[in-house]
Amino acid sequence: MLKLAVYGKGGIGKSTTISNMAAAMSEMGLRVMQIGCDPKADSTAALHPGVKLTTVLDLVRQRKDDFTMEDMVCQGFGDVVCVEAGGPAPGQGCAGRGIIAALEKLESKGVYAAYKPDVVIYDVLGDVVCGGFSSPMRDGYADFVLIVTSGENMAIYAAANIAMAVAHFKDRGYAQLGGVILNRRNVKNEDAKVAELCSDIESRIIGTLNRSETVQDAEELGKTVLEAFPDSEMAGEYRTLARQVLAACGKDVSC
User: Fold this and answer.
1) pLDDT of 123-171, one tens digit each?
2) Structure pTM?
3) Is residue 3 exposed (0-12), middle (13-18) or buried (19+ Cβ within 10 Å)?
């Protein structure tokens, strides 16, 4: 089981990238689980349009421990197993601690053992890399951390902080930095800026995505690009990215 924690600044297109990548990996014949670790609980929405997924923390609040693992998941497009950790009620509790509680609940309910995914992808907010938000990279949940960034200054700043957090844990046997995904926003000198970032953090660009209206068109439909426009050029880019990510993390991509 390959476990990936994907971080990036809020609004960078991380969840869209992950959902399409998960769909592409599923298309390759892999069993994929996507776990949203953002309190907004919208990471997997494009994979199950029209289906309301109850978050793990909402189940805990409403039923304590009186629920099954089937209550925590739904299978979306391509049979991707979708989970949303959720967050605390507004103004109450810590979102980071909520992530820890949700991931512990997934383990205790036997979700990983039951679904036996080939690839698990944690979608984690990267604006804050402390407490529970760092748990996927430090508590044995992930093998690799991937960073999604554009060439925008705040996205690069967030990416550098994420890389610093990974470096802080490198001597403890936790997740290692697998590389950077460039999600282009067509800003000036974008490729050069991200290449400089990779040099600074001793990493590399493992995949790129071009800015495309096809992504927005799919989002308007509430679907992934691979479901809405499977023959589009952008769908091809996500398929290529999925293979590049798997190869960069040492996963056999011959399937």
Assistant:
1) 987 776 665 567 667 667 789 999 999 999 999 999 999 999 888 877 6
2) 0.92
3) buried
Of how many residues is the chain composed? Answer: 255
The dotted CATH code for 2-248 is: 3.40.50.300
Q: What is the pLDDT of residues 75-93, one digit of tens each?
A: 999 999 999 988 766 666 6
Contacts of 62 (CB under 8 A, 6+ apart): none
Q: Which of 65, 50, 58, 19 has the alpha carbon at shortest distance from 224?
A: 19
Q: Cα separation of 250 and 237, whole Å?
A: 20
Catalytic site positions: 9, 14, 40, 127
